[in-house]
Specification:
The complex is a heterodimer of chains A (about 325) and B (about 375). Chain A has about 325 residues and is of the alpha+beta class. Chain A has nine helices and 13 strands. Chain A folds into two domains: about 140 residues, 60s Ribosomal Protein L30, Chain: A; about 170 residues, PurM-like C-terminal domain (Phosphoribosyl-aminoimidazole Synthetase, Chain A, domain 2), CATH 3.90.650.10. A seven-stranded mixed beta sheet of chain A has the order 8-10-7-11-9-12-13. Chain A has a four-stranded mixed beta sheet with strand order 1-6-4-5. In chain A, strands 2-3 form a two-stranded antiparallel sheet. The two termini of chain A are about 25 Å apart. Helices cover about 35% and strands about 20% of the residues of chain B. Classes of the chains: A alpha+beta (about 325), B alpha/beta (about 375).
Chain lengths: ~325, ~375
């Protein structure tokens, strides 16, 4: 089996081979192959800039892999600010002994995910570290995007706004947990890992009045809703029965005693939109396969500022709090 | 026939229409009560359901809940947590326990802190993993810090059985299994909580059978209804209690008939009796020493008993709770989490001062997570 060796990170011939045959070959674009010390970029408009590191274990899971996650994660953070993803950096920290074939699958998966937003990897770095220094592979990506719609912010959520979830929640967290525990509960369960930009672009093109957007990654929608309630000093009133949760995710939660709303997602976002645009926003979202379960889950009021209230369908209510404790390390 | 799915097993027991209709019936029948109903749900699993589903909001004012001591993590006194920490600190040792135990503060530190300082401490999802870990690490002492009420005891007994049958020489047991009936007796003997009905534990009763509560209605003249953990189960159990009270009865009844019988799981009971015996004394956090309220390894298996083998490093002085923590009073049913000065401020699930804030079965944790909208 061909493996990645320490020499691949030494800066010499082997490093050059790896970069040329694998990274340049798959991420090919004019800026990257110039191979300068830094990429030179031309940007006309205001830009958004973000970074994220990916350490998920296992590196391959139903519905994606660490490569797909590393692209979707950073591209989605840009999209959530109304920015069209343009340029990314990619830094790989690889444990010696990782199979070359696995690295190639990861890199190809990154290239495929980039096509969905049109973003390009324009600079990068590769380090190979001795066995045990990292677990198989860690990837960092940073990215910039051109802001197409300003004023999307967690500070802008207003009383009356409708809260929309782009799909059923908790798939990524449940998938990783199932794989880690070696459970084979359901073959239908897969991570929601996905580039969200096409749906966001659709909303922007139709001039939907979006107050805020956020992808519900670690901490799930519980975390996003609480962050919003606190940042905008508003009360988010959520109808529990409107939040879609698949039977598979419910099953995993049942077995392990977790809450689906606390589970990480990697292709699910929450929107606050002006009430007059809520129906149109839902129609637009549902055109995309990865948002076909989009639903309005609640609204913004002043009832309990800085709190999220969950209403049950049988007449009781409770506060929804931030998830606590060791939920799941290395989920993304 | 279509395939049976997991959700088919619980969906009906969470059905909104059934919940609403039960709550309405309870409210009507409760009008006939001649004294307020103070129900102790003994088990932390029920506390969790009651808070998660906001059941007090659906019930009339003359029905209230007193949260019981049925949370194995919550009742663990600090000196026994210090045992776990001392054992984990030995050379070449792997300490195993169940999830929540890892975060409970002992007198100076917690297992979670010790783990981040490099000690090999592993949470188990199933006790059976202890066998695997012991076999994979023949050069290490593997110690299973076993906790739980009657529900989890058979699993520990099964691991002990396999350890003996397979001649595994590096797996040892620190037994902290506790029993429900003596704890109920201790709380009733105290008398201050003014409890006049009980919801009996679900899973404990699957193992033991409902017979272990037979003396409760006789001694205390209170109804006890063994209920399931789903919201419909709990409400149905409350309705059965209300009806008994209205008729001035005090009976042992089973609501959770799909799993619980009077006799229980006799095989599991036999397995427990083969390896474990009642221990003279066990100090419960907040409640104090209760005779015959816990189990220990039978003397013929003392060669597996970590408490005996490593006795010289295990502290045995009782250690009191943090001055500001009122876990003890809560476990006795004399206070609610909101009555605690540090609830939600100095004591949160991330920085627990007391054990009731750690476990999802702890009253403070359930209040913190699910405190209802007033």
């Amino acid at each position: 089996m061909r493996t990645v060796q320490l020499s691949h990170g030494g800066g010499g011939e082997e490093t050059n081979d790896l970069i040329r045959d694998l990274f340049y070959h798959n991420f090919k674009n004019d800026i990257l192959i110039k191979a300068e010390d830094a990429a030179v970029l031309e940007v006309e408009k205001k830009i958004a800039f973000t970074t994220d590191s990916f350490t998920v274990s296992p590196i391959f899971f139903n519905g994606g892999d660490i490569g797909k996650l590393a692209i979707a994660g950073t591209v989605n953070d840009l999209a959530m600010m109304g920015a069209k993803p343009l340029y990314l950096s990619a830094a790989f920290m690889i444990e010696e002994g990782l199979s070359y074939e696995e690295l190639e699958i990861i890199v190809k998966s990154m290239a495929k995910e980039l096509e969905k937003s049109g973003a390009k990897i324009v600079c990068g770095d590769t380090k190979v570290v001795p066995k045990g220094s990292v677990d198989k592979i860690f990837i960092n990506t940073a990215g910039i995007g051109e802001i197409l719609r300003e004023d999307i912010s967690v500070l802008n959520i207003k009383e009356g706004d409708v809260i929309i979830a782009s799909r059923d929640v908790g798939c990524h967290g449940a998938t990783i947990l199932m794989k880690r525990e070696g459970l084979d509960v359901s073959a239908d369960l897969k991570s929601d890992c996905e580039t969200l930009w096409p749906a966001v672009e659709g909303l922007i093109n139709e001039n939907i009045s979006i107050s805020a957007m956020r992808d519900a990654t670690r901490g799930g929608i519980s975390a996003v809703l609480n962050e919003w309630a606190t940042s905008s000093e508003v009360c988010l009133e959520i109808e529990e029965s409107a939040v879609e949760i698949s039977d598979e995710v419910r099953g995993i939660c049942e077995i392990f005693g977790f809450e689906a709303m606390d589970f990480a997602n990697e292709g699910t976002f929450i929107l606050a939109v002006a009430p007059m645009h809520a129906a149109l926003a839902l129609d637009l979202l549902k055109k995309y396969d990865f948002c076909k379960n989009a639903a309005a889950i609640g609204c913004v009021t002043q009832k309990y500022p800085a709190k999220v209230v969950l209403h049950s369908s049988y007449g009781s209510s409770r506060f929804l709090d931030l998830p606590k404790g060791e939920l799941l390390p290395r989920i993304c | 026939m279509s395939e049976l799915k997991l959700k088919d097993l619980y969906d009906g027991f969470r059905d909104p229409d059934t919940i609403r209709s039960l709550a309405k019936t309870i409210s009507q029948e409760a009008l006939k009560l001649d004294e307020p109903l103070r129900i102790m749900e003994v088990c932390g699993g029920h506390t969790h359901t009651i808070m998660k589903y906001g059941l007090p909001q659906l019930l009339p004012d003359n029905i209230s809940f007193i949260h019981g001591p049925g949370c194995p993590v919550c009742i663990m006194p600090k000196e026994r947590i210090d045992h776990a920490i001392a054992l984990a600190g030995m050379e070449d040792t792997i300490l195993l326990s169940l999830g929540d135990m890892i975060r409970v503060p002992g007198s100076k530190t917690s297992l979670a802190n010790e783990r981040s300082a490099g000690k090999d401490i592993r949470p188990l999802y199933t006790p059976m993993d202890a066998i695997k870990i012991a076999k994979e690490n023949p050069d290490k002492k593997v110690i299973f810090f076993a906790i739980g009420f009657e529900t989890t005891t058979p699993m520990t007994a099964a691991v002990i059985k396999l350890t003996i049958e397979q001649n595994i020489s590096n797996l040892f047991f620190h037994i902290n299994h506790v029993l429900v009936p003596p704890a109920v007796d201790a709380i009733m003997a105290d008398g201050q909580a003014q409890i006049n009905a009980f919801i009996g534990p679900s899973h404990v009763s699957v193992i033991t059978g409902a017979k272990i509560y037979a003396s409760i209605p006789l001694k205390y003249k209170t109804p006890i209804v063994v209920s399931g953990f789903e919201p419909v189960d709990v409400l149905q159990g409350i309705l059965m209690i209300v009806r008994q009270k209205v008729e001035h009865q005090a009976e042992l009844e089973i609501e959770y008939t799909r799993s619980v019988t009077m006799e229980g799981n006799k095989k599991a009971q036999a397995l427990i009796n083969t390896y474990l015996q009642p221990r003279g004394h066990f100090r419960w956090r907040g409640i104090g020493d209760i005779p015959n309220s816990a189990l220990e390894l039978r003397s013929e298996f003392s060669y597996l008993d970590a408490e005996e083998l490593f006795a010289d490093i295990l502290p045995n002085e009782p250690i009191d709770d943090h001055k500001l923590c009122i876990c003890g009073t809560i476990l006795k049913g004399l206070a609610k989490p909101m009555d605690c000065k540090v609830f939600g401020t100095a004591c949160t699930p991330n920085t627990p001062l007391g054990s009731c804030m750690v476990s999802s079965e702890g009253a403070c944790n359930a209040y913190y997570r699910y405190a209802g909208v007033l």
